[in-house]
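Box 3.1 A note on notation
Throughout this textbook, protein chains are presented in two layers. The first layer is the amino acid sequence; the second is a token string describing backbone geometry. Keep the layers aligned when reading.
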Amino acid sequence: MLNVGKIEEGFVLDHIPAGKGMSVFYHLGLDHMDCMVAIIKNARSGRLGRKDIIKVECDIDLLNLDVLAVIDHTITVNVVKDGEILEKRTLVLPKELKGVMHCKNPRCITSIEQELPHIFYLADPEKEIYRCKYCDEKNSEKM
């Protein structure tokens, strides 16, 4: 049995679908942060069969929950203080995303005006479809 020590202050990302742990790691920018990170891949799970888990020892405010929700809104975020789980946060798809995705439409204003932020709005919550605020192009980017 593998033992990974508990963290004193930080967060644990639980119920990440198996194989998505490294994608979550990079999309959250954890590779650029100076903090302790433990990634557990293919852990046993009663709910998912197999899952990935990420433990991070740093302030939760450094985490962009919007990015995490777009990757998979079923991921559970456990906030840890003094070695104990202080709260469990569930993710909801954000109504608007800024600077997370990029519009692929070559005729979009964001292709011409490079300084414009890429903004997407949630067009269909059931199908998790985001559209560009400027040209209404459907996002085809998978995270």
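Helices lie at 21-27, 65-71, 109-112. The chain has two domains: 10-90, 96-132.
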